[in-house]
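COURSE: Structural Biology Practicum
ASSIGNMENT: Worksheet 4, Part C
STUDENT ID: 0417
INSTRUCTIONS: Below are two proteins. For each, the amino acid sequence is given first, followed by its structure token string. Answer the questions at the end about the second protein only.

PROTEIN I
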Amino acid sequence: MPKNIPRVPIYVSLLGLWSDMGQDEIYARWLAKPLEDYGAVKIWFAGRWNVLTTRPEYLTDMFRNEDIYAKAGSQIKIPWSVIASLVGDNIINTHDNWRLYTSIMKPGMQKRSFDTRPLLRKSRKFVDLLLQEQVIQGNQRGVLVNPLIQRYAIAVMGESFLDIDFECLEKGNARIEELQTIIKRTIFKPLFFNFPALDKYPHIFSSRRRAFGIMKEFEDLLCDLVKNRPRNRSLEPRDPEDLQLVHMLENALKEGKITDKQYRANLKITFLTAHENAQQLLNSVFWELGKSQDMQTKLREEILQAGTVDPVADTVNKLPYLTSVLYEFLRLYPPVSQLINRVTTAPAVLGGEISIPAQTWVGWNAYGVHIDERVWGPKAKQFIPERWGTTVEEMQTKFRRDCVRGAYIPFNAHTRKCLGQGFALLEMKMVLFEMLRRVSWTVDPAYKLKLTSGGILAPLRVRVILKEVQGDTSNAVSEKLVSLVE
């Protein structure tokens, strides 16, 4: 391991065993100072010491040199583990098969024009359910938003990438959705996360035996639902523009370009990542905007000035304040806050300064670089949408420039940046448009902020009190609320 960077005490990685400290608290207390001083640290994760960096020039070096700092996920690092059985070899974590998977999946993830009708339909149902739940809770108690957000995010992901309506919003308790809650609790158990060698002994640890069973149930159920989806049985020819990512994976499987194992792994990672990041970002939205009625009002005024209740991509992409708020959310609340999934293929010198032996695992902390005052100025930790500029064009230019220089990495950067970036931004703009058009909300006074302790970054168990915006009659939701009260 490098000798010119400090080592974070191993107990910091194990805090989750006895503490509920959030990532922000952990970072401020143990990581901020050494990372700011040295740009990188040695940190314990997944049963070994790794190099973690937040300095933009180090990040740029890492991202630009895929052949030296090769992507390699759990299927390489800890192939016997529960998490490896969940994700397999997929488009995000592979090095050897990355170009193959990209050639198959990229057209379905970066479509020239995504159909926004499912996004709008699911957003409306989501707001309906939020308001219905508020009636049940009464005026003084907030709605626990995460369960509904998860159902919404899975529904949108299915409609947009897998050609299936999981009906998570229309029907509660769908098993595929229930499994996500179980999987998230299972994977992020601190003991097994930091000592994955224990996963080799499911005959000793019954909880890990059950964990492997849950991962297999999810895989089989997802593949069965997708294979037998009603739309898959349609004999009507599809227009090429209507093809979704799942069709491309299915065609690649039929043509022998990928194996069944590779098909399943990429189907699962699409399901997991295409809903999880949106889910956690929406939790952050409810928290941050719930503290600021002024910001909500400004957003609502811009949205109402659009003059439509049926927005399309062109509508939301022209709204500058909405764009700046979304970019700022991704800066202060990057859902994938830390990732250590690269390994040096040969001895390397990171940024020309840190000598790293071959076969050393390296990664980054997006939250750290995004709140670094040397990168973002003295108000780096404050939520200030105006820092992005005044026009959409100006904001997009800053977005791209900061990504390239390693200062802004919510979607990674360079050749391995997230292929679903454009869709993720569109999805968030569409749901924010519908939410702010129809409701206002405040954080429940009884709620105290607690961020997740590791993995995905988001507020935990956020509760908000919602009110329907006066004068909104575009949906039948008012009638639904009346009937519920009666």
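PROTEIN II
(use this one for the questions)
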Amino acid sequence: MIQARLNEAAIQLHKVLDEVHIKHGIFGGNAIGVLGGPRESKDIDCLAATSKLAAIALLDGKSGFQCVSQSRTDYVAFLWSEQFPEARYGMQNVAPEPKTVSGQQSPSGMVSLFNPIYLFKGKLRAAATRGKFHDSADIRWLASRFLDRLKAQRSVFNLSHIGLSMKRYPELEVTFHNLRLDVQKAKETVASVQLSQLPPPQRGDVQSGILG
């Protein structure tokens, strides 16, 4: 899918959510692409501080959005943050960063992205739990683009995610050393963990990876 078409969808999403003052942020491959990374994505990942029913009522059939039927309580057409019973994290202290992009029909418009710290946390969780090479590539790109910013906040990064990411993608060790992460402690944290025995995805995994 071409970037302009994705940008158009992101612009329309921002307009709808911003109009009713729902805090939200785009993450994943689309966010990497908007920031200038060498990344093409087929969809938009977004977390929003609302409920599933409210999101459906707000978006379904409006501005080109249609609800995709899902049994999960934390997923509807795009990833988002629902206050389901197990929720442990909110977006009260999150300040998504506005960016201007060019859409397929809109000359330009605003979208909301999570800042590089949250993007990096989300990519660490992804690299730790699945085998998609672009997660490793995105981590290395973020580290090269936002080295000082990430280094200054290195204490917020999950050691288990760091360790599992290195097990899956050994080339990330150099990147993590450059960020002054505690590589040895991360390795020790997951020394007994087998990638093939990781549990299946659970509700709230994406949210906790980014916001936790």
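ANSWER KEY EXCERPT:
Q1: The longest strand covers residues 97-101.
Q2: The beta strands are 24-27, 45-48, 75-76, 78-79, 97-101, 109-113.
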